[in-house]
Design a protein that fits this description.
The chain has helices spanning 15-27, 38-44, 65-73, 92-100, 113-145, 203-222, 228-240, 335-347, 352-356, 359-362, and strands at 7-11, 31-35, 53-57, 83-87, 105-108, 160-167, 176-182, 187-195, 250-258, 264-269, 274-278, 283-287, 305-307, 314-318, 324-327, 330-333, 370-377. By secondary structure, the chain is α+β, with helices and mostly antiparallel strands. It has a 5-stranded parallel sheet, sandwiched between helices. A 5-stranded antiparallel sheet has the order 6-17-14-11-12.
């Protein structure tokens, strides 16, 4: 996979200087975003797809560079984006204030542009190296602890065939988690979740969510209460009062398969709409949930719905890694494109095993974990 160019946000109210720096950075292979004020920069910043580095002028209008940096420091995501100050003045007090705000460095505007680019490249190289070392530690932890957020196989479920496909991003365990919990010969739970944000660090939090989900399912089964909505509600309350997971959010799709009646019950929390392939009509219908992300509000309400499946019908449950991709314009999502590609394969009588063999080519320019579960009604 080709490496995406580094993205820099340039903030300066000097239009001529801004244009000059854009030309210099673009020639050096950077993807550039620009803002002529701190206020515009704040509006422009996307926490889901932040820049790799911010280079901001200090002397600007209503909000100067220090105020801009203080604003970013209040955000858990944006405060971690490397930040450099630009200034015409070599003021030691100013520099100390900036560095106290965890700014990486400062650059004098009369520095030759190629030297500025070199400094930015050196910073990003160091950041990338540190990230690489941290990612290696995640891999080592996953291997040494021998704990997995993705199962090795699926349970045999009478009347249904369950299968799944999963690919990590850059071979690093991430925020997606899958589980199949077979309570007994009659009931099987299907779990698909995605810890939001945190990138490769999200793997550490998946086990907290999985532990609570497994416990809630076992407790519900022990009491004979097979309600997916109540299970999600209990899990959400516990997560909101967990000191470790209190600020961590996760989407989840929870299905209960009843092999005796053939019924499938579904509840979701901030997840993507499920795709229900109706074999008789050779078309998809979508099934959406109204539940909010787990961990968002302790009093979150979750509903449940029964999915009526006929013989040869198929459900697809998937995370946003299946619909997100990157191109020259940045990160994009296309749910409808993914659905159309899947429908074409199904109409061509491809099985899920056939479809899985095409995912590597179909899902190019991966930017996140990718997970999809298939539930086929025999």
């Amino acid at each position: 996979m080709s490496k995406q160019p580094h993205k820099i946000l340039l903030v300066d109210d000097d239009t001529l200087f801004l244009k000059l720096m854009v030309q210099v950075f673009k020639k050096s292979g950077f993807e550039c975003q620009t803002a002529d004020s701190a206020e515009d920069a704040i509006t422009l910043l996307d926490k889901k797809n932040p820049p790799d580095i911010i280079l901001s002028d200090y002397h600007m209008g209503r909000m100067n560079g220090l105020q801009f940096r203080r604003h970013l420091m209040e955000d858990d995501v944006l405060k971690n984006v490397p930040f450099l100050f630009l200034t015409f003045f070599s003021d030691s007090d100013l520099m100390i204030q900036g560095l106290d705000l965890q700014a990486i460095d400062y650059v004098l505007k009369n520095t030759p542009p190629n030297v500025i680019v070199s400094k930015v490249n050196n910073i990003l190289f160091a950041v990338d190296k540190q990230r690489e070392l941290s990612q290696q530690e995640v891999k080592k932890a996953a291997a040494s602890l021998n704990i997995k957020s993705i199962p090795a196989n699926v349970p045999v479920t009478k009347g249904f065939k369950i299968d799944f496909w999963h690919r990590t991003f850059d071979d690093i365990p991430g925020g997606d988690f899958i589980d199949f919990i077979r309570v007994d010969e009659r009931y099987t739970f299907v779990v698909l979740g995605d810890v939001m944000g945190k990138k490769w660090k999200a793997w550490f939090f998946t086990f907290g969510f999985l532990s609570y989900i497994r416990s809630a399912i076992r407790f519900a089964a022990y009491n004979g209460e097979y309600s997916t909505a109540k299970i999600l509600q209990q899990v959400n309350k516990i997560i909101c009062f967990d000191d470790v997971l209190a600020d961590i959010l996760s989407s989840i799709s929870l299905l209960l398969i009843d092999s005796e009646t053939g019924a499938v019950t579904y509840s979701g929390a901030g997840d993507l709409p499920l795709l229900h392939y109706k074999h008789a009509q050779s078309k998809f219908s979508t099934i959406s949930s109204s539940g909010l992300l787990l961990g968002l509000f302790s009093d979150g309400v979750y509903n449940q719905q029964e999915i009526l499946m006929e013989a040869n019908d198929q459900l697809f449950i998937f995370t946003d890694g299946m619909i997100d991709f990157a191109d020259a314009g940045g990160k994009k999502s296309d749910y409808n494109h993914f659905a159309a590609e899947m429908l074409e394969k199904l109409q061509a009588k491809d099985t899920f095993t056939d479809i899985k063999s095409h995912f590597d080519a179909l899902l190019a320019n991966q930017i996140d974990d990718q997970s999809v579960i298939s539930v086929y009604k025999l």
